[in-house]
Amino acid sequence: MFNPSDILYIILAFCALWITAFVCWLIWQVARIIKNVNNVMREARETMGKIEGALNAIRQKFETVSGTAAVFAEGIKKIVDYAIDRRGEKKEEEMEGSKEEVVKEEKEDGKKKGKGKK
């Protein structure tokens, strides 16, 4: 029937088949892992691109707002300066009015004293 060397060759062939199947399975698994890593990297690049686009949009909005804010702040500054000037003018007018009243009172007091002496 089978001599011992024939049985050895059959067993070696069977082992070679299993080793080949294992190596093929291992290569398949490595290829799937590499494919998954590639997909993750592509998604990461897309996400980073979206984040970069969003940050650029936000930066542009801040630049626009900062330009508008500068104009707005300049307008507020002019309004405040105008209000301060108006307030100062009103105080000067009040002080001049007070001085005129004091001068009128002094004149009236002087006239009353002058009439009383005659």
Low-pLDDT parts are: none
Helix content: over 70%
**Class from secondary-structure proportions:** mainly alpha
SSE ordering: H
Total number of helices: 1
Q: End-to-end span in angstroms?
A: 171 Å
- Major sheet: none
Total strands: 0
Name the beta content range. under 5%
Q: Compute the gyration radius: what is it?
A: 50 Å
Overview of the structural elements:
With 118 residues, the protein is mostly helical. Helix content is 97%, strand content 0%. It is built from one helix and no strands. The chain has one helix spanning 4-117.
Question: Can you summarize this structure?
Answer:
This protein is an all-alpha fold and 118 residues long. It has one helix at 4-117. The protein is 97% helix and 0% strand.
Structural topology:
Layout: H1 4-117
Structural key phrases:
mainly alpha, 0% strand
